Amino acid sequence: MRLKGYAIVTGGSRGLGEAMCMKLASEGYDVVVNYVSDSSKAKTDELVKKMETEYGVKGLGVQADVSDYAQCQKLVKEAVAAFGENIAILVNNAGIAVGKSFLEVTPDEYQRLININLTSVLHCTHVVLPYMVKQNYGAIVSTSSVGGLMGVANQVDYSAAKAGVIGFTKAMAKEFGPHNITVNAIAPGMIWTDMLKGSSQEAVDGLKQVTPLGIIGEPQDIADCLSYIINAKFLTGQTISPNGGLTI
């Protein structure tokens, strides 16, 4: 059930975002890849070239800090200038983790995390939504986490933000279902991304032990989940959690 139009993916240059961009390209979507740091430009350019070469679609890298509303407007303005107003899919994926006890994390640190992991979801959706309402269709998918489902020690700010994404998803689905816009979330478990690769082997082994399947997921698992969501015409307001059974 391919939607007419193109996709925008925030935090798309690496990890889960990169895998989701490639999946969208494989399904024939032109993809706008958002990134924030200068150091990610080369990787974004490489990803765009890979999508275009392997799948014959068009890609566009746009640098923007999506925690800032004006930069979200810039992101969408550049997307529309390149590919037109038919924004079929918005993937709100930008995110960071701090990983400190709530006794140690500073207000500046947790405010920054909330801005990137939750406020950016509201910002980007707020800017994209008028286009989807006008065309009377669209799919919005946001990255939550098992932290938003069950809470994680030393990740109070992260868990709060990711739980917020779930609440956002439910309310948006109710309000904009009549406009044929689906709104869903993905809550990944432990996935091999840069966040996890920085952990000790002992920590990784511990995570495997508490996961019924006994493995760590791959970014492709999340990309496959995204594919299911955007092609499911009767799915909205849901949070799907590929996590190997961690939340049982």
CATH topology annotation: Rossmann fold
Fraction of residues in β-strands:
5-15%
Parts with pLDDT < 50 across at least 5 consecutive residues:
none
The shape, in one word, is: globular
N-to-C CA distance: 31 Å
SS element count, helices: 9
Radius of gyration, in Å, reads 17 Å
Give the H and E element order.
Answer: EHEHEHEHEHHEHHHE
Helix content: 40-55%
Question: What is the number of strand segments?
Answer: 7
**CATH-assigned homologous superfamily:** NAD(P)-binding Rossmann-like Domain
Structural class: alpha/beta
CATH class categorisation: Alpha Beta
Widest β-sheet, arrangement of strands:
3-2-1-4-5-6-7
CATH architecture: 3-Layer(aba) Sandwich
Task: Report the biggest beta sheet as strand number plus sense, adding barrel if it closes.
Answer: 7 strands, parallel
Task: Give average pLDDT, whole number.
Answer: 97
Give the tally of structural domains.
Answer: 1
Keywords: Oxidoreductase
Protein name: 3-oxoacyl-[acyl-carrier-protein] reductase FabG
Enzyme class: oxidoreductase
GO molecular function: 3-oxoacyl-[acyl-carrier-protein] reductase (NADPH) activity
Keywords for this entry:
single chain, 248 residues, alpha/beta, Rossmann fold, 7-stranded parallel β-sheet, 9 helices, 14% strand
